[in-house]
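Journal club prep — side note

Before the paper discussion, L.F. wants everyone to see what a predicted structure for a comparable chain looks like in token form. Sequence:
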Amino acid sequence: MSGDSHIHPDFRHILGLSQRDRIAFMDQPRWIGYQTANMIMDTMRGFMDKPARPRMPNLLIVGEPNNGKTTIVRRFAELHGQGFVNDDAEPVKPVILTEAPPSADEKGLYVALLERFWAPYRATDPLPKLRYQVIHQLRTCHTRLLIIDEFHSLLTGSAIKQREVMNAIKFLCNELMIPIVGVGTREAVRVLHTDPQHASRFDVASVPLWELNKNFQRLLLWFERVLPLKDESTLHQPELAAALHAICAGNLGDLHRLLVECATEAINTGKERIDKEIVEGKAWMRPTKGIREIVG
């Protein structure tokens, strides 16, 4: 099927660009508002609207690597975390998104947070000084939600170090009375189990792998709407959907990379549509325990 009705109206003009520009277009970040992502974002938005109290709700978002967790929180920060100056000429940073230190380290956590404020600090300063500098920055900037990505990194280190950094997170939550959101692999749940008090403070939201069902087919329909191919591929049809799912194993990031590779080949060869032959030719992209192996 030719024409451009299969492409979203906002992107139909891309079909008139060169092959190189169309391929470059596919590498641009693009948001997919699927059900689980919207539910998690609604939960975080609800956290920001809650009145301050000593024990604020917290959330741990877990899922397989490359399955969209970081994309969700970055999108949330983009929509709700942009800094501004309020009517009292005070700087406001509603959402702070940082990354956990590579290992369980309280000082590393404070340094990562101070970096998000572009605040001057000395990494050699004693812990109490860095701790209260972080508190001052979060309080002065009226931060309402703190997001810590790569939360599972806090498993790296001794049990004492893990306990120290988790106690630091609990202290920040109590002192500032703001919700905290952790983001990581499923191993991150083990961080909470280091202390029953930590586990009781966090709800866990899972970003599951996609099953081969109608939701996955709808996802493929959305992808087809933004792939700049001149002919319709009907990715959502059962045979093609099953072939794509067999390679990406339901991982959203792997699916995106697979479709970009397939669409790139369709553009370069002049085929202008993704068919089963192109998909099966990308079997080498099948992940094996998180590692992509070339298969014969």
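L.F.'s comment for the group: The two ends are 32 Å apart (CA to CA). Keep this in mind when we get to the figures.
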